[in-house]
Every structure is written in C-alpha cells, then in structure tokens.
C-alpha cells in the first residue's frame, strides 16, 4: 500500500512540476532566469529533474530493501 | 564541449544528452521486458516473469522522466518564441502518442496488481506486455512522423528525424550523445537488476532454492 502511495506521489509531483512550468506563458519575452545566458538554465532544470527523479526512485527501492531486512529477523 | 549555435534552441540543444537518452533507454528497457515476456510464455518460468515486470517498471520510469524533461524543454523553446499557445502544444501528436504509450504500460501494472493467482497473473500480463510493446510502434514511432508537429522529426519541420537520421546530428553532439545513450541505458539496466534481485529474494520460498 505504502509502495503504491509513494509511486503515485512521485507521478503527481512530476505532473505538478510540468503544469507550474506551463503556467509561465503569455508574458512578453523578458530576460528572466530561464531565458538568460542562452537558456542554459533549461538544461540545468532538465538535468535536475532527472537526478531528483532517479534519487527518489532509488530511495524507494532502498526502503523496500530495509523492510525486507526487517522481516528476515 | 562546444555545441552548434542555433536560434531558438540556443544552449538547450544540450538537452539531447538527457531528454532523448531517456526515450532511448525506455525503448531498450521495454524491448528487454518484451523478450522476457516471450521467454516466460515459452517455458512458464516465474523467474522470467519477474524479469519482464521489473524491466517494464524501470522503462516506464524512464518514460515519465523523458516526458517531464520534455515539458520543461518545450516550455522554453515552443511556447513564446514561435508564438505558440498552450492549446497548440496540447495538440502535439508526439505528446499525445507518448502519453498513450505510457498509459498502456500503466495499465500493465494495474493488470498485474489485480490478480491473486500467481500463474494466471504472470501469463496474462506477459501476453498484455507483448501487446503494449507492439502499441509503442504506432503511438511513438509511426503516427508522430506522419503528422505535422513542432517536435523535430515531423513533416513540416526542417529539423529532420531526431532518432534515426544519423546524418542530421552534428558530429560534436554525436561524441557525447552516443556514450550518453549507453550510459543512461546501463544505469536503467542496473536499477532493473537491483529490483529483480530484490524480488527474487522476496520470492525465494516460491522457487525452493
């Protein structure tokens, strides 16, 4: 049950990230952070998304292993 | 590393090493899962079913990451620079196709969870997995290439085929891109093998090892 809840949380947090990012349209093209420096921060954001996603996923697997270890004793 | 200087994309061309590699990794992991499903149906060994399940799980995870990174990338290259609204982005055939493909794999896990009998679960989900893999081809390979889209690789965009036209990629990008595909895919396979080993230990009593 806990596993499903954490998986769902991960999925919806991904969805939430994307809606927040989509909500920033309809503005004149200002020199805000993501469009500055040749949009290099977009690459940073993409990189961080993957890293955070992977860390969360591996963390969930780690918790599963801990639970298995506890059951063994 | 120097990258080609392009309008609109600017430095975001570097996302090629992340966003595109996620989809490559997903495709390879789903392919592995498909092979193990066929192997399961040939011998009905539950070991192969565990392999197929875990490869599909990590593949779906890579797909979700690919989708999430795609939304970020699209937001800063499609939305304002080509005067595209959110409505036109939601009509993107590539986005819809990828969403359908991921939802079909989502149904695979729902299907697996709904059985209590292990053999029945393994058998039906193996058949469904073959169907899900077959559905990947129309939804993410064929249809997006037939209809117009902002995504590279669609007719109407002059940027060519993103995945298979190897003449289209600049050689400077290629030097990082190919090792990146191998690296991300191996990372996915490593996580999948960890999950498989975990599952095998969990089900040890079933295998009488």
Topology:
The complex is a heterodimer of chains A (73) and B (209).
Chain A: H1 2-22, H2 40-72
Helix pairs in contact in A: 1-2
Chain B: H1 19-43, H2 46-77, H3 86-90, H4 93-113, H5 118-146, H6 171-202, H7 204-207
Would you give an account of this structure?
The complex is a heterodimer of chains A (73) and B (209). With 73 residues, chain A is mainly alpha-helical. Chain A has one domain. Helices cover 74% and strands 0% of the residues of chain A. Chain A is built from two helices and no strands. The radius of gyration of chain A is 18 Å and the shape is elongated. Chain B contains seven helices and no strands. The termini of chain B are far apart. Chain B is elongated and about 60 Å long. Chain A binds chain B through residues 11, 14, 17-18, 21-22, 24-25, 27, 29, 34-35, 37-40, 42-43, 45-47, 49-50, 53-54, 57-58, 61, 64-65, 68, and chain B through 9-12, 14-15, 18-19, 22, 61, 64-65, 67-69, 71-73, 75-77, 79-81, 85-86, 89, 187, 191, 194-195, 198, 201-202.
Helix/strand/pairing class of chain A, anyone? mainly alpha
N-to-C terminal Cα separation of chain A, in Å? 22 Å
Unreliable runs of chain A: none
Helix-strand pattern of chain A:
HH
Number of domains as seen in the coordinates of chain B: 1
How many DSSP-defined strands of chain A?
0
Most extensive interface between two protein chains, with residue counts? A-B, 31 and 34 residues
The profile of the biggest β sheet of chain B is: none
